[in-house]
Every structure is written in C-alpha cells, then in structure tokens.
Automatic annotation (TrEMBL):
Keywords (A to Z) from UniProt: Disulfide bond, Oxidoreductase, Redox-active center, Signal
Gene source species: Coxiella burnetii
SUPFAM superfamilies xrefs: Thioredoxin-like
Protein name: Outer membrane protein
GO molecular function: oxidoreductase activity
Any Pfam family matching the protein: DSBA
Highest taxon of source: Bacteria
Annotated transmembrane regions: none
Domain named Thioredoxin: residues: 1-112
Length: 130
C-alpha cells in the first residue's frame, strides 16, 4: 500500500507493526512529511513481529485495501492507545466505514498471507531488526 504521491520521485519504505509504540509515534511524522513533500511516495510494509494480534491487524489492513480504505484504517489503527485485540481492530474498521463481513472474507485471501511472507523475507534480506 502507498500513501502520498503514487508517482513521486522519492520513495520512503516503512516496515511497521500496528502494536509497535515507535511505529505509532512515527505515524504523525510520516503524515507531516507526506503533506510537506508532493513528490514523496510512502510504501507501507506490514511486519507483524509482536504476535497474533499484530498478525491479525496486518491481515485486516491489507484486506481494507480491497475496499479502498487502507490508509484510513492504517491511520486509525495506529492511533489506538494500548494493546490491540480482534474486537478493537474490527471496531476500528467499522469506524472508518469498512464492510466487516467482506473484510473477514478478504482476510483469508492467500495473496494477503503471501504479501506478509514477502514482507518478512524482504526485511530479513535487508537485515532489518524490529
């Protein structure tokens, strides 16, 4: 998923986990940078390293993209205080106008699991540490 100018000549790639405090803090910084730089393309790479709820949130966010609401959901979920749960994640999805029944179906799409595996492999090849 991409924010900012999808055709921008500068690309920032962010690997993140929805339960990571540093990732949550960086969200407002990235929003400000996107607003200030019209040539910036931000590519988001879900990297759910904090367990099951992180994995669940990552799947929901990628499924949200199918409804055209990835960035709204991404921003809202990173604004949640405290630990995530399936209930909080789905309530957040409802708040941004996602069809939760469709979201649950889309979460099971093998392409979503593949994207998460690809993100992990890329992070490992870049020797990134959470």
């Amino acid at each position: 998923p991409v924010a900012g100018n999808p055709h921008g000549n500068v690309t920032l790639v962010e690997f993140f986990d929805y339960q990571c405090g540093h990732c949550k803090a960086m969200n407002s910084v990235i929003q400000a940078i996107v607003k200030q730089n019209k040539n910036l393309r931000v590519v988001f790479k879900e990297l759910p390293i904090f367990g099951g709820q992180s994995q669940y949130a990552a799947k929901v966010s990628l499924a949200a993209a199918k409804q055209g609401k990835y960035y709204a959901f991404h921003d809202a979920l990173l604004s949640v205080d405290g630990q995530l749960s399936e209930q909080i994640t789905l309530q957040t999805a409802e708040k941004v106008g996602l069809n939760v029944a469709q979201l649950k179906k889309d979460m099971d799409n093998p392409a979503i699991q593949k994207q998460l595996r690809d993100n992990f492999q890329l992070a490992q090849s870049l020797q990134l540490a959470g």
